[in-house]
Amino acid sequence: MGNNIPYKPDLGVPGWLALLPERQPRSALQEDIEVDYCIVGAGFAGLAAARRIRQLDRNASIAILDATSAGSGPAGRNSGFMIDLPHIVASSSYAGQLESDMRDIKLNRSAIEFVGNMVREFNCPQQVFRIEGKVNAAAGKSGVRANENYARHLERMKEPCEMLNSNEMERMTGTDYYLGGLHTPGVAMIQPAMLNQQIADGLVNQCACKLFENTAVTSIHKQRERWKFVTESGSVVAGRGVLAVNGFVEKFGFYQRRLMHVNLYASMTRELTTDEISSLGGESRWGITPSNPFGSTVRRISDSGGHRIVIRNRFSYDPDLFASEVNLEKAKTDHRRSFEARFPELNRVRMEYCWSGRICASRNHVWALGKVADHLYSACCQNGLGASKGVIAGIVAAEMACDSDDDRLMPDYRQEIQPEKLIPEPFMSIGAGTYLKCREWIAGRDK
Ligand SMILES: Cc1cc2nc3c(=O)[nH]c(=O)nc-3n(C[C@H](O)[C@H](O)[C@H](O)COP(=O)(O)OP(=O)(O)OC[C@H]3O[C@@H](n4cnc5c(N)ncnc54)[C@H](O)[C@@H]3O)c2cc1C
């Protein structure tokens, strides 16, 4: 099962990681070991699974294997919005059905609280995780209408939100680009690479988990009642396993032809000078998601790496999971264009970092979550919103792996249906590629 599992790192250096002091990764696995639980993948899902297993089974031995080092995978490459509200990235509006959206909000908030607790327990610096909300920004009239509809939906759910006009948007961001915005207070803004590293190190130092970085699992085998996870220079035999590898779960032999693999792209400017900061104006820290889901996510940050702008847009459908250098170059051009449209006075500011990161989605927006074989569980397919959804998946898979009926953390989780099958190739790639391009084009000024 899952032989010759391929792995290639995401492209480009994520700015979030580059801003951090150098960290010595934990050594790669060099021997054959046995543990009670083996978790493959140290992103949001894998780390949450490790923490939850430790809570449920205090004396268990736990090994976490990741093909790359903490903070360099997608969990350290995202825009850093840990979102509490419904937010289906691939939809035409963020609003869904009232009942399921209310259930989603409870789940997302439990995930945010779970991470907040780890941040406190592991004494992480403040910049790692702050609940300070975000704004859904509208650059065009259709975005304003989308925000109004979304605000009505939130009000029906008694969720606090506040409409901002163009002046208020300018006061916050320093740009007159936006016609309006919708502020919601419950989002946690994270420094993703720092959060990923701090939690990984906390699990090792304070929860006695073994972490092996730069350790790709190349195959898995059933050995009587146990699972053997084979790597290039060692192996882990475990009573229970959790696959927290997002789209790579398909390469392990599960959910094949049911998962859509998409790469996202982001850029971060160099540090702004004092003159540039005063000519820009606005607040020193803010985060905006686009009211059209295919527009640009933009953040201003002002912590240890100085004042910078981070921008994310462009999607590519990559059924083999891997982004191409060509698409990374196209993304750089798009980021530049979107940045200059918003901040023309900063047109001399170059982008210091540009990177890609893979995400995984299903046609019916459900997780690939649950038991995939005896004593083996999947915590994958976060539909683009892995900061909260990954944590939920990790917790649920951990509870399954521990045969726990303690559902206090996620009482609102209901087992979902399977991800729907994809249509055959080449129609799937043509359809998905065209869909993404059209949606990006329709996003217009929001991109
Ligand atoms: C540019 C960008 C912006 C984004 N913005 C946001 C955002 O603002 N908010 C949000 O919620 N989400 C965002 N996302 C999505 C989010 O980052 C992902 O959904 C999330 O990282 C998924 O978490 P995960 O733990 O399931 O998987 P991942 O973070 O992908 O972790 C899986 C891990 O498995 C490891 N792995 C894979 N194969 C193997 C193997 N064979 N052996 C060992 N290890 C393996 C990988 O190295 C990886 O570290 C963004 C993504 C990108 C790229």
Look at the structure and give the CATH class.
Alpha Beta
General form:
globular
- What can be said about the biggest beta sheet? 8 strands, mixed
Mean pLDDT over the residues = 94
Key words describing this protein structure:
19 strands, 8-stranded mixed sheet, globular, binds flavin-adenine dinucleotide, 25% strand, 447 residues
Architecture overview:
The protein has 447 residues and is α+β, with helices and mostly antiparallel strands. The chain has one domain (15-401): FAD/NAD(P)-binding domain (3-Layer(bba) Sandwich). Helices cover 31% and strands 25% of the residues. It has ten helices and 19 strands. The chain has helices at residues 15-18, 44-56, 98-121, 141-156, 166-173, 192-207, 274-280, 325-342, 386-401, 427-443; strands at 32-40, 62-65, 81-82, 129-131, 134-138, 162-165, 180-184, 188-190, 210-212, 217-223, 226-231, 234-243, 260-269, 286-290, 297-301, 308-317, 351-361, 368-373, 376-380. Strands 1, 2, 9, 10, 11, 12, 18 and 19 form an eight-stranded mixed β-sheet that branches. Strands 6-7-5-14-15-16-13-17 form an eight-stranded mixed β-sheet. Helix 2 runs parallel beside helix 6 (192-207) and helix 2 (44-56) runs parallel beside helix 9. The longest helix is centred in the first third of the chain and has 24 residues, at 98-121. The mean pLDDT is 94. Flavin-adenine dinucleotide binds at residues 5, 7, 40-46, 65-68, 73-75, 77-81, 83, 216-217, 244-246, 248, 264, 266, 312, 357, 359, 382, 384-388, 390.
